[in-house]
Amino acid sequence: MPTLGRTQNIQRQQTRTNFRFAKNKIHLTYKFHLNVEQLVSTFGNLGNGIKWWSIAHERGSHTPDESVGGEPGQDYEHTHFAVEWKRRLDTCDPRYFDIIATPTDTGIYNVRRSVGHTPADGEHNVHPHLQQINGDAHSARIFDEYHHKEGVPFQSETRPGQTVNATIIERIRNASSLAEACDIAGKQKKKIQKNI
Questions:
Q1: What DSSP letter does each residue of the chain carry, written as one string?
Q2: In terms of pTM, does the model score above 0.85?
Q3: 140-166: pLDDT as tens digits
């Protein structure tokens, strides 16, 4: 086997990564407000299809000691995307979830995967902040922290054809009783027995 020269060996080491994603659930945060339908369809074919997803558009602002691509304290738009696929994804590519975002007149950016593509003039290659979701409790915490915040519009699909919107969630949260919340959600009320 031929030995690598010093330069080749350094280049090979620099391309190695410790990144590995081997799960079926993830929470991604992207710069910009992204087109919901395009984001879902962009990642929908991975992992044998999507079980559920949730997307929230949010406007945040940095504290004076922070700065991301601008002046300290500057507002920034971003999109939270939580998804569970039907099958586990397994990749060591840290750029696997990167997208190309194209601005539109509406302020919502169009989306396509960046794998194998180079952004054209005016387009942005966007690498997300990734959080692997570890179990149902972690998933619930992420939803409470990012998707179900007051004043943050979100959309989600819990199963094919059933879309849940922020108005329904808010009505359920503000219901005066469990029976009313079940009626709003379209769920059948069941009797609960206490075993003492």
A1: -PPPPHHHHHHHHHH-----EEEEEEEEEEES-B-HHHHHHHHHTGGGSEEEEEEEEEEEE--TT--SSSSTT-EEEEEEEEEEEEEEEEE--TTTT-EEEE--TTSPBEEEE-TT----TT-EEEPPEEEE--HHHHHHHHIIIIIS-TT--EEEEEETTEEEEHHHHHHHHT-SSHHHHHHHHT----------
A2: no
A3: 788 778 877 766 666 776 644 445 555
